[in-house]
Hints:
The protein is α+β, with helices and mostly antiparallel strands. It has helices at residues 2-16, 38-51, 72-90, 96-115; strands spanning 55-56, 68-70, 118-119, 216-217, 219-220, 224-226, 232-238, 250-252, 256-258, 262-264, 267-274, 283-289, 296-297, 302-306, 314-322, 326-329, 333-337, 343-349, 353-360, 363-364, 373-377, 384-394, 402-413. The protein is built from four helices and 23 strands.
Amino acid sequence: MKKRMILTAMLGVALALGMVFIGCQGNSPSDPDPVDKTALQTALAAADTAKSGITASADGTDVSAGAFWVTQDQLTTFNTTIAAARAIYDKADADQAAVNSAVTTLGTATAAFTGQKHAGTNPGGTDPGGTDPGGTDPGGTDPGGTDPGGTDPGGTDPGGTDPGGTDPGGTDPGGTDPGGTDPGGTDPGGTDPGGTDPGGTNPGGTDPGGTTDTRAELTAGGAVNVAYTATTATVTFTGATGLSLAAADFTVTTGSIIGTPAVSGDTVTVPVTFAANTVTSPKTYTVGINSSSTSIKGSATVVITQAAAPGSGTAQVIYTWVNEHEIVTSDTTATLSRAANQSLTITVTGSGYSNYQWSLNGGDIAGTAGTTSYTFSSAGHGNGKYTIGLRLKSNLGSAGDAWYSTQITITVTN
Length: 414
């Protein structure tokens, strides 16, 4: 009777500490956290900036120098991608997976669209000023040169046969009528500035448009993705046939260094170095063309994405089974961060037990039968609560073949 009372008391202690018989069901994952659309909002703003001021053109000859163009198909494709991403952003019940997918798709489209931009080639060197009608100004044939004054009737003035004989008409000033030397003969029209009209030497003939930019325009290669441990990457551009390029011909965002480019055929490869990523979010480096380069031009860029570093932190709970049916645990709940890639290891110690079986939310976990520990990782699980259960069979004393179980609640967060 005494032994039975002791066993009964000990079993009561075990039940008070959280042990339940088989059949207890775990909690189901709670409702997910609100969807975070911040990254999508940023991606939409970047896309709008990328297409600002861009003109649709077949070949760029109708786009002025200093402006940029893409084909109509390229602009339409980019606008369609932006519209799809914006629809996800505006969708009230969009889930996080759809939002994340839209961020990735729009980021890739923005990088591709940026690489498709070309500078306009509208030729300012054919300024109409070079053929200014001023060079054939009618002033050069000014009727003044044949001014009727030269045949002024004054020279045959009837005064010469004037019966007066000494009629002043004989010496009528009409004979030497200033009309004979009418300024019309040397009418300034003959040397009308129109003949040397500045139009003939109109700066239009040497309009900067006439000195076409002869630098090679490069086209961007594809985006580059590297592991978080990587410290180097190589990006490519095309259109560099016959060029000798230096690191100074390119630019790169802060925190990275451009190496010496190598040209093969029309392709140039540009090496970039940077530090390994130590944070739990991706890093990006943008390689572009230096506007001060005397060899190459263009707005093409290539983005290098360095993966996020895995998080750190492993929690551990140890269940120690001592004596008969008694369990001692350090905790019954735990919180894990997905961003930090945290995990929880549950370990059982003690002797006299067998047939261990672990469960997740009431369902047996395959491959865990007979194991004395189990690790739950936040990776692959959405935000919410999860119940890890353990049942085992006692082989001790009169309680042999009795089954017992316990559980711990895990909360997964971002």
